[in-house]
TrEMBL record:
<dbReference type="GO" id="GO:0003677">
    <property type="term" value="F:DNA binding"/>
</dbReference>
<keyword id="KW-0812">Transmembrane</keyword>
<feature type="domain" description="HTH cro/C1-type">
    <location>
        <begin position="9"/>
        <end position="64"/>
    </location>
</feature>
<dbReference type="Pfam" id="PF13560">
    <property type="entry name" value="HTH_31"/>
</dbReference>
<keyword id="KW-1133">Transmembrane helix</keyword>
<keyword id="KW-0472">Membrane</keyword>
<dbReference type="InterPro" id="IPR027417">
    <property type="entry name" value="P-loop_NTPase"/>
</dbReference>
<dbReference type="InterPro" id="IPR001387">
    <property type="entry name" value="Cro/C1-type_HTH"/>
</dbReference>
<feature type="domain" description="NACHT">
    <location>
        <begin position="158"/>
        <end position="253"/>
    </location>
</feature>
<protein>
    <submittedName>
        <fullName>Transcriptional regulator, contains XRE-family HTH domain</fullName>
    </submittedName>
</protein>
<dbReference type="InterPro" id="IPR010982">
    <property type="entry name" value="Lambda_DNA-bd_dom_sf"/>
</dbReference>
<feature type="transmembrane region" description="Helical">
    <location>
        <begin position="497"/>
        <end position="517"/>
    </location>
</feature>
<dbReference type="InterPro" id="IPR007111">
    <property type="entry name" value="NACHT_NTPase"/>
</dbReference>
<feature type="transmembrane region" description="Helical">
    <location>
        <begin position="452"/>
        <end position="476"/>
    </location>
</feature>
<feature type="transmembrane region" description="Helical">
    <location>
        <begin position="537"/>
        <end position="563"/>
    </location>
</feature>
<dbReference type="Pfam" id="PF05729">
    <property type="entry name" value="NACHT"/>
</dbReference>
<feature type="transmembrane region" description="Helical">
    <location>
        <begin position="584"/>
        <end position="617"/>
    </location>
</feature>
Length: 702
């Protein structure tokens, strides 16, 4: 073997045109080592020496293997250098957040208490799936809940449609799919993310853009810049997230076909859930989901109920379990057998009768029709979780939420969408500005004066009307969204900056003109002997110019300084609300002093110009500073209450709706309590009713 090694080494050295000295130098080994190996004097070279000689001779893969074999060694494989993945940390952070969220949701819904309901499915009719040729090959699709990932991985195209009637277990299945897929996930696999399709309008935004928007809403840290835009858009475009599209049937009426066409325009791997009828109608008007297999969730059987319901309570009856009369009725057929076939109705029955000590399941036997049984279970759910007395207080609040969501056409209880009304907003702005002005002017004057009261009332009315119109103008163009910003200079002004500046110029100028007129009018009403001269209009014009330019500067500056904020804690409605409040207050703290300083500087220029035109206008710097501070504080309040999502939350959820009895005064605590009792569920930054059927029930309960 040694002579073979020496022969090979000599052959390849001569082929390379190297002397023994040159080879030794190139391989950084001793000349005696090369000579000894070629002559056979050295028979046991080290692994590193053989590798260095092979590298110096630039041997091919087969030649390297032959040289190592001649040396009596096998070259260990060299691990490929790890490829840098700029998204690795982001993907892993997202994975941890999603796993924690949905594990908490499973616990909250008592999915494993005592055992999960036996959700099963079979292959859907051929008319509801694509051809096996397009899917990539036939696959066995029947399965049960603990096999959902296995069944999905059998589908070559990785596109699966899960169909089922209302309450059949689609939400339970998607949650289990996400958790099981994350548990078996390799680092290179995409992260499954559940998206509620009810808010998607395919005619307004493409699927990929909508997915990115939803990711940012649910996980705000994904709004940070990434290699190809935001981190969210980069994850979607690079297929690092697996969309789990829940609730195709919840898309607004008339949009199902266009939604299916949009889904067919992409080859993204995905899992889609829908009620059967809505999906069948969309397929009839277009085509099936391209390259997608489909399954239909099966009804629960009497044996499934017998294996589950008796385990949810230790109470007994004459024949054994308290549930025995119900189970006997189910086996005999009839209305109960028709109703207790979905996980939703079974879980409601369990909550009403197993988890409530004084309720006997046998009461269900007295109900005559399936519709009567369903309405009874839905209406009994809230008294069961709250108790009869508290349920009477809570029911009107839940009813208002359900009706509000129905009007919006959504299932998301988003704190920034509790209401929008130009009249209510104008009223809130007027009261806030009037009170603030009265307090500030009284402090400056050192006494309470009738003139100040009159001015506060009039400026409140005028400012409320102007900002009510501003609110209506802005909301009609773009609904208010939570502010997720931090202050950071971004560079040149863009379209958003100019748009905000023009808005400030228009409405700030209107407020300024009104301020000048009302100021003179209040003084004249207290001292009627004073004359109303043309200086009134000079004052109004001067204030309009100063306030308009000041508001344009401030709003444009705010828009120019906005940049994404990494708020990783804002993975809940309360977290997003807190981060939004901090961002809004930070903006206002910047707006007030900037506006005040601008007013001081601008009034000096304006008064000089007016003096040159022989108008008697005297604005001393202290007076200008006071006006700037009053205008800045009043303008800041008006901006917050009318043009920010957090301000609208304060106006409607914290004041107007509790004042009119439609919601409690502690809205956040009420929503969190409803979530903990299982009436609501949490989907990132929003709440939802536990099931769409429950929302529909409350919406029709008046």
């Amino acid at each position: 073997m040694a002579s073979q090694l020496g022969s090979l080494l000599r052959q390849w050295r001569q082929r390379a045109g190297l002397s023994q000295e040159a080879l030794a130098q190139r391989a950084t080994v001793g000349i005696r080592t090369v000579r000894g190996l070629e002559t056979g004097e050295r028979t046991d070279p080290r692994m590193g020496t053989v590798r260095a000689l092979a590298d110096a001779l630039e041997l091919t893969g087969a030649e390297r293997a032959e040289l190592f074999a001649a040396a009596g060694r096998d070259e260990p494989p060299v691990a490929a250098p790890a490829r840098f993945d700029p998204l690795h940390e982001t993907v892993e952070t997202l994975k941890v957040a999603i796993e924690a969220r949905w594990r908490r949701e499973e616990e909250q819904r008592q999915v494993h208490d005592p055992v999960p309901l036996p959700v099963r499915w079979d292959a859907a009719p051929e008319a509801l799936r694509d051809s096996w040729l397009n899917i990539g090959g036939e696959a066995g699709l029947a399965g049960r809940l603990d096999q959902v990932v296995e069944v999905y991985r059998r589908v070559p195209s990785k596109r699966l449609v899960v169909l089922g009637r209302a309450g059949s277990g689609k939400t339970v299945l998607t949650t289990r799919f996400v958790l099981d897929l994350l548990a078996a996930r390799d680092t290179a696999d995409p992260v499954p993310v559940i998206f509620g399709l009810g808010s998607w309008h395919p005619g307004r935004v493409g699927l990929r853009d909508w997915l990115a928007e939803q990711l940012i809403r649910e996980y705000p840290f994904l709004s940070a810049p990434g290699p190809g835009g935001t981190l969210a858009s980069t994850l979607v475009d690079s297929q690092r997230v697996l969309p789990v599209l829940d609730g195709f049937d919840e898309i607004a009426t008339g949009l199902h076909r266009s939604a299916l066409l949009a889904l067919n325009a992409t080859t993204l791997p995905l899992l889609l859930t829908s009620r059967v009828d809505e999906y069948r109608d969309a397929v009839a008007g277009t085509d099936v989901l391209t390259s997608a297999a489909a399954v239909v969730l099966a009804d629960l059987t009497a044996d499934d109920l017998a294996g589950y319901l008796p385990r949810t309570t230790r109470r007994t009856g004459p024949g054994g379990s308290a549930w025995k009369p119900v189970l006997d009725e189910v086996r005999a057929g009839g209305p109960l057998a028709e109703v207790l076939t979905t996980p939703l109705m079974v879980s409601l029955a369990r909550r009403v009768y197993s988890d409530t000590p004084d309720h006997d399941p046998a009461a269900l036997l007295a109900l005559g029709t399936p519709d009567e049984i369903e309405r009874h279970l839905l209406s009994s759910f809230v008294p069961a979780v709250y108790g009869p007395a508290r349920a009477a207080r809570v029911r009107p609040w839940l009813t208002h939420l359900a009706e509000h969501l129905t009007r919006l056409g959504t299932h998301d209880i988003a704190w920034w969408q509790f209401g929008t009304s130009a009249r209510v907003t104008g009223l809130a702005v007027g009261v806030a500005v009037g009170v603030a002005d009265l307090v500030f002017d009284t402090l400056l004057a050192g006494q309470v004066m009738l003139q100040l009261w009159l001015f506060a009332v009039m400026i409140g009315l005028v400012t409320g009307g102007i900002f009510g119109l501003a609110h209506r103008f802005v909301v009609l163009r773009t609904p208010l969204q939570p502010v997720r910003t931090r202050l950071r200079l971004r560079g040149r002004a863009g379209r958003r900056v100019w748009s905000r500046a023009l808005l400030g110029l228009a409405f700030g100028g209107a407020v300024g003109a009104a301020y000048g007129l009302v100021r003179r009018l209040a003084y004249w009403m207290v001292t009627p002997e004073s004359a109303m001269t043309r200086e009134v209009f000079v004052d109004a014009g001067a204030f309009a110019l100063v306030f308009g330019l000041g508001a344009a500067l401030v709003l444009g500056l705010v828009a120019a300084l906005e940049a994404p904020l990494d708020v990783r804690a804002a993975l809940s409605p309360e977290g997003l609300l807190r981060s939004n409040r901090r961002a809004v207050l930070l903006l206002v703290m910047m707006m007030v002093p900037v506006f005040a300083v601008f007013v001081v500087a601008a009034t000096g220029v304006v008064t000089s110009g007016l003096a040159a035109l022989r108008f008697a206008v005297v604005w001393e710097p202290p007076t200008a500073l006071a006006i700037g501070l009053v205008g800045g504080i009043g303008g800041g309040l008006a901006y917050v209450l009318s043009l920010t999502a957090w301000g609208q939350w304060v106006v409607f959820a914290r004041v107007w709706l509790p004042l009119t009895g439609r919601l409690p005064w502690r809205v956040t605590a009420f929503l969190d309590d409803a979530y903990r009792r299982g009436v609501l569920r949490r989907a990132g930054a929003v709440y939802q009713f536990r099931h769409a059927r429950l929302q529909e029930h409350f919406a029709r309960s008046r």
